[in-house]
Amino acid sequence: MGIVYAEITLKNTGDVINVERGFIEESEVRQTTVRAMVDTGTGTLVMGEGLREKLGLQVVGLRRVTLANNTKEMGKITEPVDIHWKERSCAIRALVVPNTNEVLIGAIPLEDMDLIVDPKRQTLIGAHGDEVVCRI
User: Which of 4, 80, 100, 104 could lock onto 39 through a cystine, CB 3.0 to 4.6 A?
Assistant: First the structure.
């Protein structure tokens, strides 16, 4: 299987909530659309510092991470960010890794949005077709 990419839109979850509460306008939501590498070996959403700053995400903690080259780094954990792929979405804390511009979408957001990788077409598809199914 080759590398799979997906176009996703990321939104500051706090901004989205503030729109729902009437505190800000929809046009004020900090958001961006990116090309993310689908990485089922990664747990969560991974981004670089520049994207964290662009989205205005606050750092809520630190976590030691092991990178693919087996080096150890300290990563920042952010407040939640909304991930949108087609008609599906979820909110999750992101991991900010130093010295990267790559965005990775990992297993937890894929599972939350009921998505799997179609290795034949090298794309994301719904695990249960067009219907999002939550398993309990």
Answer: 104
List the CATH code of the domain at 4-130: 2.40.70.10
Tell me the C-alpha distance between 128 and 75, whole Å: 33
Give the tens place of pLDDT for each residue, 79-132: 999 999 999 999 999 999 988 899 999 999 999 999 999 988 999 999 888 777
Chain-centroid distance, C-alpha 53: 15
Determine how many CB atoms are found less than 10 A away from the CB of residue 103.
Answer: 22
Q: Given pLDDT bands bounded at 50, 70 and 90, which one contains residue 1?
A: low
Residue boundaries of the structural domains of the chain: 4-130
The structure's pTM equals 0.91
Q: Given a cut of 70, is residue 78 above it in pLDDT?
A: yes
Q: What angle do CA 37, 93, 95 make, to 5 degrees?
A: 55
